[in-house]
Write a structure and sequence with these properties.
31% of the residues are buried. The strands form two sheets. This protein has a three-stranded parallel sheet with strand order 1-2-3, sandwiched between helices. The chain has helices at residues 15-27, 47-57, 73-79, 92-108, 129-137, 148-157, and strands spanning 3-8, 30-36, 64-69, 84-89, 114-119. The protein has a single domain (3-122), classed as HUPs (Rossmann fold). It starts with a strand and ends in a 7-residue tail after the last helix. It has six helices and five strands; from the N terminus they run E-H-E-H-E-H-E-H-E-H-H. Helix 1 (15-27) links the parallel strand 1 (3-8) and strand 2. By secondary structure, it is α/β, with parallel strands linked by helices. The chain is globular, with a radius of gyration of 16 Å. The structure holds 4'-phosphopantetheine. 4'-phosphopantetheine binds at residues 7-9, 36, 72-73, 101, 104-105.
Length: 164
C-alpha cells in the first residue's frame, strides 16, 4: 500500500492545496494531510480549526485523512510509518526552498523520507495562503481562491461580518 503525507501550514487551505491533495490522492492509496503546529508563527486559524477546515474540504475524498504534528516532519513520518512527503511547486521560486527542505529531510532521516513534488495546476499557481489573508483583510474577493465556507470563516476572523 502506497502511503504519503502532505505536510503544511494550511493557514488557510486554498484551491491550490486542494488541487495537490486531489491529485496526490489519485497517485497514493492513502494520503495524510498534516497541519504543522508551528509555535513560532501566529496563525489566523488554530491547528484544530485548520484540521477541521481541511476535513470538511476533503470529506469527499475517501483515501484522505487529516492530522497535525509538531516538531520535525521526519519524526512524525517515522512514527506513522510514512516514507513519502508530497509538496506542491507553484513556480521556480518555490523550488530552491523546497529542494533544501527535501534534501534536509532525506539526510536527517537517513534516506527514509523522500519527497515527491507535484506542480500546481497553472490556474492556481498564483495562489498563496498569505495573499488570500491579505486580500480578505481588506475585504477583497477571495471566491476564486478558497471554498465558500472557508472564505466565510476568513472574513469572520477579520470581523467583516457583512461579507460572511
Ligand atoms: O505550508 P508551509 O508552511 O510551506 O509548510 C512547510 C512545512 C510544514 C512543510 C515545513 O516547514 C516542515 O516540514 N516543518 C516541520 C519542521 C521540520 O521538519 N523542519 C526540517 C526541514 S528544514
Amino acid at each position: 500500500m502506497k502511503r504519503a503525507v502532505y505536510p503544511g501550514s494550511f493557514d488557510p487551505v486554498t484551491f491550490g492545496h486542494l488541487d495537490i491533495i486531489k491529485r496526490a490522492a489519485e497517485i497514493f492509496d492513502e494520503l495524510t494531510v498534516s497541519v504543522l503546529n508551528n509555535k513560532e508563527k501566529t496563525p489566523l486559524f488554530s491547528v484544530d480549526e485548520r484540521v477541521n477546515i481541511l476535513r470538511e474540504a476533503t470529506k469527499n475524498i475517501p483515501n484522505v485523512q487529516v492530522d497535525s504534528f509538531s516538531g520535525l516532519l521526519i519524526n512524525y513520518a517515522a512514527e506513522n510509518e510514512l516514507h513519502i512527503a508530497v509538496r506542491g511547486l507553484r513556480a521556480i521560486t518555490d523550488f530552491e526552498y523546497e529542494l533544501q527542505i527535501a534534501q534536509t529531510n532525506k539526510k536527517l532521516s537517513e534516506g527514509r523520507l523522500d519527497t515527491v513534488f507535484l506542480t500546481t495546476s497553472l490556474e492556481y499557481a498564483y495562489l498563496s495562503s498569505s495573499s488570500v489573508k491579505e486580500i480578505a483583510s481588506f475585504g477583497g474577493d477571495i471566491s476564486q481562491c478558497v471554498p465558500d465556507f472557508v472564505a466565510k470563516l476568513i472574513y469572520e476572523k477579520y470581523n467583516l461580518k457583512h461579507l460572511t
